[in-house]
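Please, structure for the following, as tokens.
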Amino acid sequence: MSSAGVSGEVGGEACGIHRFVVFGDICGSGTLDLAEKKHQRAAMYAAFDDAYSSVGVEPGTFHQEDRGDGILVALRPDVPPTLMVGRWIDTLYESLRAHNQGRVRPLRLRIGMNAGLVTQDRHGLVGRAVDLAARLCDSPPAKRIMNETPEIDLVVVVSDWLYGNVVADGGRYVEPDHYRSARIRSKETDEAAWFHVPRRPAPPLIGRDGELPPEGEPAPEGEPAAAGERPPAGAARTGVGPSRGDGPTPPARGREP
């Protein structure tokens, strides 16, 4: 476990700090033997490291917990969230694509993203922002996308707050029009979330509850799903999030276009 030293405590009392939270999970890890589990875990960490490096997040400056077949991360409050929903996702996708070329068992990831108040104790991270990131990652629509479209290696699910306050504003590598909304109903969670598959104009979702299209029919690529319209440009945003900025053009990473 690595930590940025941002504990969320003042005078011994827990107090939440607004942080960007990422929850990642390997799809189908329960079907892998031990050797393949170790291999895919190593590849997942390498892909995350590539993505951190691409946005200038140095090792030891963030909190990261191992979740067996996944990773839970909370970044420092000064990391621009536009970098995370833009270049970070793009680099993660490229890393997965490079790793998976020619492999029989490709590494496939579900990613949940959220931002909100988080505190940290000696056991790890605590906060509703963390809970929701986990629910987004493990949501039924996200699992259906990966289970029923095996050619997809990465699905990203962001909270409604994160979409409305960060993604919808756009930025380098950010594609707000390529997200679609679906309802998440899991445990105590019942709210809209936004789904994205890199390099696709829309994830294979239709309807309020994230149903996949009938067999043999493509997902609609025109209007957003009925669960939520994309906020109009210039619309007022709510909440107080981290600073924004998409940063300079990243250096060439030697991967194929």
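The radius of gyration is 18 Å. Residues 34-54 form the longest helix (21 residues).
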